[in-house]
Specification:
Shape: globular
Number of strands: 0
Largest sheet: none
Order of helices and strands: HHHHHHHHHHH
Helix content: 55-70%
Radius of gyration: 17 Å
Strand content: under 5%
Length: about 170
């Protein structure tokens, strides 16, 4: 599941989720086989505390760098953007269920509708991770939570990878 960098960063900040980048460094095979491109940045972040938005930028780049590698290596896997699923949850889940040979029952549809319906709030409470939301209106809620300067900073920080998933119109 691919998520817009600004939405990702907005959630990270809302939940105040900080990351210990030393965890990556403590996995030499991960660093050698997958994250060597980021080693200098990861070391810097492991040694010095960084702003939560800068942490989100580096984490997003690492995660989505790996998604690009998986896309290349696993042509038969499903890669969907969170925003597309949020815009039309029933269609996207039906597609997934069908292609995974799972029953897309009325109960499943009801649960999806219950958790994504427009009658749900757009915003999650600050301390909640999983919650019912109006998924469609939540797609661009990051535009209200981040300043223009922060959005530019995020976009500039991730653009080397984000351009594979998001166009100018998505910003």
């Amino acid at each position: 599941l691919i998520r817009h960098p600004a939405a990702f960063a907005s959630s990270i900040r809302r939940l105040n989720w900080r990351h210990r980048f030393s965890h990556f460094l403590n996995q030499p095979l991960l660093m050698q086989d997958h994250l060597g491109l980021f080693e200098a940045e990861i070391r810097e972040f492991a040694e010095h505390e960084h702003d939560i938005l800068d942490q989100a930028i580096l984490l997003w780049r690492i995660i989505h760098h790996m998604i690009l590698k998986y896309q290349d290596a696993h042509k038969d896997w499903f890669f969907l953007r969170h925003e597309d699923m949020s815009e039309d949850p029933l269609s996207h889940f039906e597609y997934l269920f069908k292609n995974l040979n799972l029953d897309f029952t009325e109960h499943v549809k009801t649960v999806i509708q219950d958790y994504t319906d427009s009658s749900n709030p757009t915003e999650a409470r600050k301390d909640h991770v999983f919650t019912k939301r109006d998924s469609k209106s939540n797609v661009k809620s990051w535009k209200k939570k981040l300043t223009e300067k922060e959005i530019v900073r995020l976009r500039t920080g991730v653009e080397d990878i984000s351009k594979a998933f998001y166009s100018d119109e998505d910003w």
